[in-house]
Amino acid sequence: MSLNLTGITLSYPDGDSRLTALDRVALDVPRGTLTAVVGPSGSGKSSLLAVAATLIGPDAGTVTIDGTRTTGMTRGELTELRRHKIGIVFQQPNLLPSLTAAEQLQVLAHIDGRPPAKARGRALELLDAVGLANHAHRRPHQLSGGQRQRVNIARALMNDPTVLLVDEPTSALDHERGAAVVDLITRLTRRQATATVLVTHDRAHLTAVDRIAEIHDGRLEMPTPAGPDGDGPGPGRAAAAG
Predict the structure, then answer these.
(1) Going from the N-terminus, what domains does the chain have, and what CATH number goes with each?
(2) Where does the ABC transporter domain start and stop, copy by copy (predicted)?
(3) Nearest Cα to 36, choosing from 155, 204, 218, 190?
């Protein structure tokens, strides 16, 4: 398994008591598979993603990324782990206005100390993979909303992560563009062999994912196989339980 959450419990202060955001969540996602986590606002989706990304430490339970348990790791060690093992597709692309599509990706490689020529080649390869080979020179204001989200996805893959975490990628897109983005994430999961978790409140575009897990009040329920109309077997064998 490339992503494993075991017994994850997370709570936040709520006046004189604490509010449970995640309640003994367990999730296993192998490389090359995509698990969608669906649920209404406030159900725990964002908290689950933040814990999986090692941005928040749980009250209890363990997070294992590509065989590495994160329990007890320092802040610096977690930063290094995220840099090399985890790609995050944020809900809003948050692209830098002054940079071209290719430069949005290259800046990450620059931070990581990669040679510029190698970084440029990798950036162009990923932009081609997301269908933007002819848009590498364009800046955010010259791209549509769907194209900016594609740059966002390519950027998350720049450092060859083993785990890809995707936060509500279709929230600002219409139905057609949303479906295209989820299809792209599904295809890239297979191609890049990432262990992918996609959180969303919308089931409409999830027919091709491997598993759909439902979260309610912080509890992750046994997922159903994805497929046509959400009731057929999906193409992979990711598993989750809670």
Answers:
(1) 3-94+157-241 (3.40.50.300)
(2) 3-242
(3) 204
